[in-house]
Structure formats: C-alpha cells, structure tokens
Amino acid sequence: MYLYASGKSRIIAYERAADAVEHLSSEAKDLYDEGKLEDIPGVGASIAANLSDIFKTGKSKHFEALLKSVSPAVFELIPLEGIGPKLAYKLVNELKIKPPDAISKLKKLVLKGEIAKLEGFGEDSQASILKAIDDYKESGNRHLLNYAESVANLIVDWMKNDASVTRVDTLGSLRRKVSTIGDIDIACCTNDVSKTIEHFVNYPDKKRVLDRGDKKASIIIPGNIQVDLMAQRPNAYGALLQHFTGSKHHNIALREYARTKSKSLSEYGIRNLKTKKLKKLASEEEFYHSLSLSYIPPELREDTGEIQAAESDFKNQTPGLPKLIGLTDIKGDLQIHSNFDIETSHDLGISSYRVIIQKAQELGYEYLAFTDHNPSRSKHSDKQIIDLIKRKKESIEKLNYSLMHNNKRVISVFNSLEVDIKSNGDLSIPEAAFDCLDFVLVSIHSVFRLSKELMTKRVLQALNHPKAKIFAHPTGRKLNEREGVELDWDKIFDYAKENNKFIEINADPMRLDLPDYLVKDAVKRGVMLTMGTDAHHVDHMINMRYAVYVARRGWAQKVNVLNTRPFKDVKMLLI
DNA sequence: GCCGTTTTCGGCCCGACTGTTTTCAGTCG
Fold first, then answer.
1. Which residue is nearest to nucleotide B28 (CA to C1')?
2. What does pTM read for this prediction?
3. CB neighbours of residue A260 within 10 Å
4. Smallest CA–C1' separation from A119: which nucleotide?
5. Which nt has its C1' nearest the CA of A185?
6. Which nucleotide is nearest to A132 (CA to C1')?
7. Residues A514, A520, A523, A524: is their CA dihedral positive or negative?
8. Nucleotide nearest the Cα atom of A255 (by C1')
9. Distance B29 C1' – A203 CA (angstroms)
10. What is the DSSP string of A527-568?
11. S-S: A294 plus which of A22, A62, A313, A431, CB 3.0-4.6 Å?
12. Residue nearest to nucleotide B12 (CA to C1')
C-alpha cells in the first residue's frame, strides 16, 4: 500500500501536522487566508499545499488519489480496540470485507472461525477481536468528569487496601481535569510491584482483565470503562506520575525539548544520552527541575505553550507560568436556583433560601446570587411577570434584612434572574421588570442553530441591556449531548471587555461552559470571568470546584475571576 | 514530510504488552 510503503516517517509527519491543526488556537482557514499555513509547526510546503487545495476546492487531489487504493471498510475497523491500520487493512483485503457495516461483517467471519485461519492470526487473536467488537457496541460516550472521579475513587480505595501500597494517584485526563474522560488511569507507589498488580486484577467489580504485565495492567469495569494501573517503586514514582499524567502532546513536546539537552525521558526517569546514566526521580517537582523547568501543574500539560512558559519561569523571566486560581479563592456563587416559585420558564430549584444560605456559609462564602429562571412568557401577561419578579424582590429584601440582623457571619444576597435570550436577541422579561433586579444573567435556552453572524448579533444585543451583566453557559453545550452554538468569540470577548460584561464558567459537570480553550482566549484578552454552580439543589453547590478546574485549564489566575473579589467590589461591578 | 544555538542530511518520543513466533511487528497510551 502506497501510504505505508512510502515510509513511517511520512505518516508521523502527517499525524503531527494534523495534531497541530487540531490544537490551533486560531482557525486554519484564517491562516490560509493570510498565507501563513507554514507557520503551523509540522506543516511544511507539501502539507501546506494540500491544505490550500482543501480550502480552495473543498477536497485534496493528493488524498483522493491515495484513498482510491484503500477500502472505506478499513476505516470502519480501525476504531476497534487492538485493531490498528495494518490489521484493518489486512483483514479487509484478505477476507474481502466490503463497506458499509464492516464491523458486523467481520463479526460473522469471526464466528465462522475465518480469522484464526489467516496467517499471523490465531485462536487468541480471533477471540480478542470478538471481544473488541462486542465492547465497541456497548461503549459510547466519554464519561463526565464527576462520574469518572466517583468511579476512580472506588478503585483508589481498593488499592489502598494493599499493604505494600504507600500512595495512590489518579493520572491521565482525570488528573488534568479534562471535562470528559475516556479511560481511568491510576498509579500506585508500592514496595512490591507484582503484589500490587495482583491486587489490582482482583478488583471485585471488574468485568474482565484486558492486559496484565509485570509493571502495568488493565481491567474493564461495568459500563465498559477501561482502568489502567501502573505500579512503581518509590524512588522512581515521580517519573511515573509525570509520564502517565500526559497529555500525549505535552509528553512528546517535553521529550523533544529534553533531547535538545541530550536527555531522554521515560517513566523510569531521565537518561543522560552522553553518559547513558539513568536518573530516577521520586517526585515530579524534581523531574521538571532536572530539565531546568519550573513545575508545571497537570491542568496546563497540553502543549499549548506551558513548556516555554516553564522554561522562562525557571529563569525568573516573564512571561512565566500563571499562578493558577484555586477553590479557596472563591468568595461567592453567582448562579443558584432556589425553590421560590415565580412560575419559571425552565426548571425551578428544589432547595429553599434557608438551606442554600446555610450551605453558602459552610463554604465560607461572602455572597451569592439567586438567579432563578424568568417567569414563563407563554403563561403570563407582562403585568403578571412584573408582579412575580416584584414578589421575589421583596422576599430577598426580607432575607437580606434578616441576615444582617440574625447572623454572626454576614452573607449578602444578590437579587438576580437568569433571563432567556430570545432568537432575535430580545430578553424574555418586560422592561419594567428590570427595575426590580440587581442585575441579570442572560443565556440561550432555545434556537441553538443560527449562523455565526446572527448568533453573535443575538448575544451582543442581549448583553447590550444595562442590567445584563453575565453571559451564562455561553456556548450552551451539553457534554455528550449537544454541541455549543457558533459565535464570533473575538467579538463577544472584545465587547465584554469594553462594556464591563462578564462571561460565566458554569460549574455543572454536564456543561463546564465556557470551555477551557475559550477561557484561555478570554484570559489572554483580559476578559473578566464569573463562576456559578447553576445549582438547582443545595447539594450541587459543592460543584464549584469543576469551574475552578476549567479556569485552571484556561490558565486563569485569581485576578481573572470576579467572584474571587470581596462583596463590595463585586457589588460595584455588577450593580 | 519536516526540521535544525551541534545539523540543509539524517534523523524523527518512549516503553509495555500481546500474539504468534523463535526475534518481532503491531497497537496503545
């Protein structure tokens, strides 16, 4: 096959270029328009020409020609666990599998025992292909961060039962706090590696053992979640943590960086390529410092400039690494739904003012905002809506009065509302109702599909209202369910910065919206962010940490987030 | 195919695990 016969290096080159394009902070199309495609790392004259071809004509002659020699059935099989390009190609060609439905055709052949007859395959590989096909059917989406955390915690607890284990950590995307998680990675610091592996594969709630070696093992647990465990002795545990925290892109970039210093990195430590000596490292801090880099927090390890920043940080030069925001910096929750019934358009909260206030005090907050949805438009006249919002205003005034006089710790409550942005950019409450509110959040709850231009115009018009201060769950995405809306973020961020508007990071694990990569853009542009849990039940208020994770992944510092500030500052900026 | 404060040619991140073979290729993270 031409694609492979022409060399592995070219494949790697294309993969690198594809990764670089995917990780671009700007659109490749914009770079094409400016004639700067070759500025993308890994993109040279040849790949730039192919890309130009695609932007110009919608397709690439080069790839159309190449793809003629490969059946589409090959690409259908590659997603199967354990099937890569070579095996897929071999199976399709030797068994004459035709698209579509290559996977189910393959399954029929497996059940007939045709695979084991092929050269290079046997009974075992045939069985593992069958398992891969069955798993593939059951496996669906990536898992939400909070779910993955809860599953991982059970396994962490199980591993702590092993007496030889001195420390357990979650690694991979879970440690980097990515919003959705594929596999769960766990590291064990142990004095007896083989005993620890044995303990792991005996996890009571496993479905089956996928791999099992001397140093690592993988199991499948219900829900078809793969759990990988790596075990290491204490003296090299830092190298293991670093290696399996990733991301893949970070590690590749870091190893390339290390090579410029004649060093080679692995999960065992740092090898000096001149002396061939391996330096084992017990901690990650030592690992990074040995490369003349400042310690890089896991959330930043995506190869988006953190290595360069850590290098200059280590030399005390600017720009260094950001001093990332932490959960304890948060002084209030700016999106909470109560059960005070104003006959809302979307779901009402479940918990009362009283229990929410109590929880806010437990969390050490100075303030919070009650941001119930606006009264439903279809079921009420303008006057009824205004009356409902007046009732809410009076109830919160009473609440604030009693808080001032009855509590040891003063907590202040903003009287706010989460107001729907209608498809034309109007807000869903009558003008007179705004007088009863401190400020409002505006958000999209309908008509998610509009052109980028119209959607941007819609949001800017909504934000133009003097009481509209926060653009809540800005993309409207729901993880695993719905893509976000299309917006011209440059325009939204510029407008927000110039007009004292704030962009929310919604902490609901199903949303995590603004997404991390847009947070990074917003931070770079000096846009001020807010955080809200969007709690509809008092128990959701502890979700604030997820917003903090997103902010950290977006390089945000305390100064970038409004609700790290004391009440009087926040009041001044919102009212 | 890309890339260079050792290089415009000769390399390209690193190692574990599996299955099918007797020394390794393919896949994965």
1. A82
2. 0.88
3. 7
4. B20
5. B29
6. B27
7. negative
8. B13
9. 22
10. --EEEE--BSSGGGGGGHHHHHHHHHHTT-BGGGBGGGS-HH
11. A313
12. A9
Distances (CA, A) of A313 to A293, A420, A541: 7, 44, 35
The string of DSSP letters for A115-134 reads: HHHSTT--HHHHHHHHHHHH
C1' (B13) to CA (A280) span, angstroms: 18
pLDDT band at A409 (very low <50, low <70, confident <90, very high): low
Residue type, A482: R
Distance A267 CA to B5 C1' (A): 29
Per CA to C1' distance, which residue is closest to B11?
A9
Q: How many other C-beta atoms lie within 10 A of the C-beta of residue A119? A: 7
Which nucleotide has its C1' atom closest to residue A258's CA?
B13
Structural domains of chain A, ranges and CATH numbers in brackets: 2-138 (no CATH), 143-232 (3.30.460.10), 248-314 (3.30.210.10), 327-574 (3.20.20.140)
- Which amino acid, one-letter code, is at A197? I
pLDDT digits (tens, 9 = 90+) for A88-98: 999 999 999 99
Interatomic CA–C1' length for residue A402 and nucleotide B9, angstroms: 79
Tokens of A398: 């009473």
Instruction: Find out whether A229 and A223 touch, Cβ atoms under 8 Å.
Output: no
With cut-offs at 50, 70 and 90, classify the pLDDT of residue A139. Answer: low
DSSP state of A423: T
pLDDT digits (tens, 9 = 90+) for A159-199: 999 999 999 999 999 999 999 998 999 999 999 999 999 99
Chain B footprint positions (protein CB, under 7 Å): 1-3, 5-6, 11-21, 25-29
